[in-house]
Amino acid sequence: MKQSLGRASIRPEKPVYILNSASTVGTKEGQGPLGLLFDKVGEDDMFGCATWEEAESTLQRDAVGLALEKAGVSPDDISFIFAGDLLGQSIATSFGVSSYQIPLLGVYGACSTCGESLALGTMSISGGFAGRVVCVTSSHFASAEKEFRFPLEYGNQRPLSATWTVTGSGAFVLGDEEAMTAARSWGRGCPRAQITGITLGKIVDYGLKDSMNMGACMAPAAASTLEQHFIDFGSQPDDYDKIITGDLGKVGQRVLIDLLREKNYDISVQHMDCGLEIYDAESQDTHAGGSGCGCSAVTLSAYVLKQLEERNWKKVLFLPTGALLSKTSFNEGKSVPGIAHCVVIESVRNR
Amino acid sequence: MKQSLGRASIRPEKPVYILNSASTVGTKEGQGPLGLLFDKVGEDDMFGCATWEEAESTLQRDAVGLALEKAGVSPDDISFIFAGDLLGQSIATSFGVSSYQIPLLGVYGACSTCGESLALGTMSISGGFAGRVVCVTSSHFASAEKEFRFPLEYGNQRPLSATWTVTGSGAFVLGDEEAMTAARSWGRGCPRAQITGITLGKIVDYGLKDSMNMGACMAPAAASTLEQHFIDFGSQPDDYDKIITGDLGKVGQRVLIDLLREKNYDISVQHMDCGLEIYDAESQDTHAGGSGCGCSAVTLSAYVLKQLEERNWKKVLFLPTGALLSKTSFNEGKSVPGIAHCVVIESVRNR
Q1: Which of A329, B62, B173, B322 sits a CA distance of 20 to 30 A from A145?
Q2: Exposed (0-12), middle (13-18) or buried (19+): which is A111, by Cβ within 10 Å?
Q3: Closest Cα partner for A340 from A226, A211, A254?
Q4: Is the bond leading into A191 cis (omega within 30 degrees of zero)?
């Protein structure tokens, strides 16, 4: 069984389904344009916890719990969980998913982590290593500001190119044909969609150092992965109903479209960015858009998969984008390299 | 093709080989009992760089470069690289491996990361997703002290249960049958060994909070993964020449042996800990032993694989152990949960 397609791309031979998924978000996300679509909106952003990090762990725990419930399975039915977040040593994950006692594979790709976890989950199922896996990622506005930028109490000004870290977590239960058939026999409306391709990204570093303009830092990586994807799959932008980046925001979107035009790909019609969908930039004062590991994950679960279920869209490219920086690398004057991993998601007939 | 064996375990159906590997270390490791076995020992621990983080990146870059060279392949021959370290946002990895321009899958499992990367690498090859992958992990004493503990200038006292973070990086080129045959035809003495099984671990939290006694924090996770492994593979401790943990050190070793005795497994004869092998505790003042993502990786590459090549050992269990803490989680009074992933490595006849 050869499931590779070129060096960086994969076409799974065994079908891989998104059996179900769930999204949990904070109050600001609940008030945004997608607010009504999320499974759970917190009453405040502490979720009953004492610290922001614990609050983020709770977001993950709730998202996984809800996704399992919706898929009609228990933690014992899951072979492994691919999980990650933005905090140092992925600490929101460690304390978020431990109670489920599922073998854990921690992943880190900054805000591209949702794509990475779905890619690895797809491989583990199509490779015959697991019947069902869970992929979960999260971010939290306040824990991310503390980790990367300034104490909230400073009340520092944010440039217009800055994005707003999404408080949210998205969890996905992936399964093979057998798991899908079982779920159907239990009367679950499933699967939500099918994963039919992957293109993994490499680090792209244009030398940009402005951590308040992460869209521009990540756009070259998105362009690189997309170009590789079109080559490996022999496809064109209009083969997809939507080409969905994670959190490029307003600035990064322009850069991406321009960079791909230079390569003779025009994605201006199909392009959508989760960071631009999740907030109303004007009324919610989020500047360039939303960002974070949670941004693409909750938008995929709440909005994108819904469109695929309703067959408004048949086939999309989902491409979370990550900015590989830390407080230390920023303080030491390093650049902000980007990375992006791409997943092809298709609607399933006769759900 | 069903390659799972119980929920957490995998027996690869397609053979997966460690084609070659390399280790780079700092001066202290070079002066230790394994000193002569490492591929590259730095003249000092800065490796010509301006910061400790850059020094750690250089360790990774050199380890990958050497491993590729020894395997006789170029970066373009590698499908993906599984890489990670201990620093916030895995920053040593981002700046360590980017120059190779190989699609990157970032992994995080604290000091268990070497096991996680080998497990995922094995899956990607046995699943037919890649012909060759690289797995690399690193740690650096000074960057880790800065990340987790005190400024070195404090000269703080360290309790006897504390371990010493290894400055080092180990890189492994995994490949399938075809890649192995190709390497042989080029006259490379290869493969170093074969990976024949995996057991993935879950988070185990006994509620211990002493970050200066990580051996005790991680031992329960090692015991849990080992017990699961023996059950899933229907094996016993004496089926292995060595059972090799990553960095439990003196204290953790005792705890692990005791915990497994309660489950009726006696591993006291077979057990070896990389952290206890890499330094001479007395003359090098390293207290409970070595630790870090690099500890198990460089010991595997320099020492364990050598024993397998020379057929002094035929079959070992390699079980890197991780302590899932961050500065923030420690300061917020959280416990230090552990995790451990297990890889079965066997010697290959007719190399």
Answers
A1: B322
A2: buried
A3: A226
A4: yes
Distance CA B273, CA B260 (A): 15
Which CATH superfamily groups domain B195-346?
Answer: Stage V sporulation protein AD (3.40.47.40)
| Intra-chain end-to-end CA distance of chain B, in Å | 28
DSSP label at B103? -
pLDDT mean across residues, chain B: 96
Half-sphere exposure of A48 (CA within 13 A, CB side): 5
Question: Helix, strand, or coil here: A281?
Answer: helix
The verdict on a CB contact (< 8 Å) between B200 and A97 is no
E-strand stretches of A91-226: 104-106, 132-139, 164-165, 168-175, 193-199
For tokens 């192995």, name the residue. B180
Tell me whether strands A16-25 and A40-41 are parallel, antiparallel or unpaired. Answer: parallel
Model confidence over B53-89: pLDDT tens digits? 999 999 999 999 999 999 999 999 999 999 999 999 9
A334 close to B (CB below 8 A):
yes
Total CB pairs under 8 A between chain A and B: 191
B4-185 falls under which CATH superfamily?
Stage V sporulation protein AD (3.40.47.40)
Chain CA centroid to CA A137, Å:
7
ipTM over 0.90: yes
Residues 72-91 of chain B with CB under 8 A from chain A are 76, 79-80, 84, 86-91
Mean pLDDT of B181-206: 93
What span, in angstroms and rounded, lies between the C-alpha atoms of B290 and B321?
Answer: 12
Which residue of A108, A140, A209, A341 to mutate against B (max B Cβ within 10 Å)? Answer: A108
CB proximity under 8 Å: B 130-189 to A: 130-131, 146-147
Q: How many Å separate Cα B218 from the centre of its chain?
A: 14
State the Cα–Cα distance between residues A333 and A335, nearest whole angstrom. 7
8-state DSSP, A77: G
In this predicted model, which residue has the larger pLDDT, A189 or B73? B73
Beta-bridge partners for A169: A24, A138
Domain boundaries, chain A: 16-185, 194-346
CATH architecture classification, A16-185:
3-Layer(aba) Sandwich (3.40)
At A182, give phi and psi (nearest 5°): -60, -50
Rg (CA), chain A: 18
- The rounded distance, in Å, linking the Cα atoms of A124 and B351 is 30
CB of A104 closer than 8 Å to CB of A81: yes
Give the mean model confidence (pLDDT) for residues B169-182: 97
Segment A223-244, tens digit of pLDDT: 999 999 999 999 999 999 999 9
